[in-house]
Amino acid sequence: MFQTRGEKVFNVINVSFMLLLMVIMLYPLYYVVIAAFSDPLAVSTGEVTILPKGFAMDSFHRVATMDRIWTAYGNTVFYSVIGTVISLTLTVLGAYPLSKRKLPGRKLITFFVLVTLWFNAGIMPTYLNFQQLGLLDTRLGILLCFAIDTFLVILMRTFFENVPDSMEESAKMDGANDWTILSRIYLPLSGPAIATITMYYFVGRWNAFFWSMMLLKDQDKVPLQVLLKKLIVEVSYNVNEAVDMSASAMTEQTIVYATIVIAVIPMLVLYPFIQRFFVKGIMVGAIKG
User: Fold this and answer.
1) Which residues touch 18 (CB under 8 Å, ≥6 apart)?
2) Nearest-5° angle of CA 125, CA 201, CA 137?
3) Residue 46: φ, ψ to 5°
4) Which ranges does the record mark as transmembrane (predicted)?
5) C-alpha distances in angstroms, 151 versus 95, 148, 282?
6) Exposure on the CB side of residue 23, measured as CA atoms within 13 A
7) How far apart are CA 256 and CA 108, in angstroms?
8) Which long-range contacts link 170-176 to residues 24+ away (Cβ below 8 Å)?
9) CB neighbourhood size of 39 (10 A)
10) What is the pTM of this model?
């Protein structure tokens, strides 16, 4: 297809900008990986920038033998898997009735749902609410904490609205109820949307640390991200307090990088298998029928 000079210039600028943006976004992760495998002294002195310096696995060995590291890792897996199942279930159960145009008060309910996109109670009221419900320092509190993402409910609702009404009417003529229609018609047709929403919830659960840090006091219940935050704070404190960079501080710095690498491995493994559903799930759910 023939392109004008202006279109060619735009494509060059656009591609260059996107490549620059990609480098800016990927470099921090790349640096963490090469720093985790590099010599601790080279990392601490700033010699590691583009390529790794030396090769050392001591940091990963220290992480593997660290107290509570695997307990925290197991907690993260538990919160992510079970929490995603709970979030996905609540999202589907909320989106399905909202997709019905004959639902009494549908617009008003949708309005109250949408309000939560712009307004929230704040940190202290939310914390006091969990306290009064007896959910402080409990796994149930973490699983129920912000279990529903309003945007994903709206996305799922819009996807359900695109299912032809004729299919539901035919099922009802055969005696199917709403549970049967949801499980046998809507959910099988919503594979891309469900895969997309599942990945969003799983990533959000995996990376969540703020409310876990606020609600959990028992160290046997904290997820990996809270432990990682503690390591980063301790390393920053040790580095700032030390007159000379000690070998211990150098090792702690690379331990943080090794922990980050271990923490992001599940995301890197899962994403390629679900990435193909992302565009389809978002685009189909965004088309109003």
Assistant:
1) none
2) 45
3) 80, 15
4) 12-37, 76-96, 108-128, 140-160, 181-203, 255-274
5) 11, 9, 11
6) 6
7) 48
8) none
9) 19
10) 0.81
> Residue by residue, what is the 3-state secondary structure of 47-105?
CCCCCCCCCCCHHHHHHHCCCCHHHHHHHHHHHHHHHHHHHHHHHHHHHHHHCCCCCCC
The structure tokens listed for 36 are: 């985790």
CB 102 within 8 A of CB 172: no
**Cα 139 to Cα 64: distance, rounded to the nearest angstrom:** 24
Q: Per residue in 174-204, pLDDT tens?
A: 888 888 888 888 888 888 888 888 888 998 9
Closest CA to 33 of 232, 269, 260: 260
State the average pLDDT over residues 45-55: 84
H or E element, residue 172:
helix 165-173
**C-alpha–C-alpha distance, residues 174 and 15, integer Å:** 54
Q: Token pair of 229, please?
A: 């935050």
The encoded tokens of residue 169 equal 């009417």
